[in-house]
Amino acid sequence: MHLTRRLCAPLSHFTRMKSLGLFAALTVLAAHSAALRASDVPAVALSSGGSMPLVGLGTWQVTGDRELEQALDAALEAGYRHIDTATIYNNEHLIGKVLKRWLSEGKVKREDLFISTKLPVYAMRAADVPDLLNQSLSRLQLDYVDMYLIHMPFGVNRESYNGVSIVAIGPNDTDPSTDHRAIWDAMVAEKEAGRARALGVSNFNESQIERLVKHSAVPPANLQVELHLFHQQKPLVEFCKKNSITVTAFSPIGSPGSKWLIKLSGKELPDLLNVPEVLEIAKKHRKTAAQVLLRHILQKGIAVIPKSSTPARVRQNIDILDFSLDDEDVASLDSLDKGIDGKLFIMKNIGGSVNHPEYPWTKLQNEATS
Ligand SMILES: NC(=O)c1ccc[n+]([C@@H]2O[C@H](COP(=O)([O-])OP(=O)(O)OC[C@H]3O[C@@H](n4cnc5c(N)ncnc54)[C@H](OP(=O)(O)O)[C@@H]3O)[C@@H](O)[C@H]2O)c1
């Protein structure tokens, strides 16, 4: 009885989102046991078919064998089925190893998993798409991914990547020939061949997405984009909603492990986990600041993919389905949005990206080059 009540409040929010037409066919199933089951996690329908769990595990900056294994085991045990990776995270092979163990032991079925990976910035050419996706599938030991995303809208020369870090790509290695429509057509061919169940883009702006929507009979089903308390992306989310594109928030708790990278952009990383309003709301609901930050996004029908390699935090980050932020909480958190000024990742350190014709954040171009 108590456990059923646990999900009542969130369910009303998701139902309301559905009636608003925010994302269709959102499903929340009732909890039956104390341990969260994968089916307890709400999912959102994708325009190209199937659905995506709204809570996933981020894996950027997790490259240690043991570290990743521990995090992924904790996640799968806690009910996560959505795992986000990318070619440039250099961990697909480790994820593949853990998934293979879970699949071969019969602890999880392939059809219950939702694995997303990304076409890297050094392969932004139509001819590179089949090769790069095949490499990802081979490392992940899978026949298909559930979501294949174009990681960045800009491109660099393939030979400029040292196989370790995209931050090391020199400022003169940009490849201005990037043709989104041609790359997208190659992605659609992969979907038709069954190697990717759904397709999406990441770090694209509205006009870049619109170009693909107008171009293809298979428009992007998902946008993965930086989205958190200080950068809530309200206009972009509204645009996606109108175009039946689901949104996934990356860095949903403000990427506290990325101080080193933000410094490269000449910025300081704000500490979202210690914002007074967040702490106050957390105290009121007896939840942590991270859980409030995640719940604020989730309640809008946006997927969250927090990264943690600390098992207790992995569990904490999915334990956000048994409470609901009220209108006052939401209004307070909504008001903390700083718009473009709250953006953390300018990505100017990727092969001269700011000078690329497809650099997406024109408002930041001057700031990024200064
Ligand atoms: N498409 C893109 O361009 C792009 C860009 C960035 C990220 N992403 C994806 O989005 C995922 C998430 O973004 P992110 O890794 O930048 O940042 P994030 O998830 O906002 O933050 C991760 C950091 O928060 C800490 N943390 C996690 N849970 C916590 C908790 N409950 N309490 C306190 N600290 C906690 C983690 O530390 P511990 O690990 O030590 O627990 C880690 O340092 C990535 O991993 C990646 O999959 C995509």
UniProtKB/TrEMBL annotation:
PROSITE patterns: ALDOKETO_REDUCTASE_1, ALDOKETO_REDUCTASE_2. Coiled coil: none annotated. Residues 1-38 form the signal peptide. It holds the Pfam family Aldo_ket_red. The keyword Signal applies. Keywords: NADP, Oxidoreductase, Signal. Residues 55-337 form the NADP-dependent oxidoreductase domain. InterPro entries: AKR, Aldo/ket_reductase_CS, NAD(P)_OxRdtase_dom_sf, NADP_OxRdtase_dom. GO terms for molecular function: oxidoreductase activity. Belongs to the aldo/keto reductase family. This is Aldo-keto reductase family 1 member B7-like isoform X1. It comes from Thrips palmi. The gene is LOC117640162.
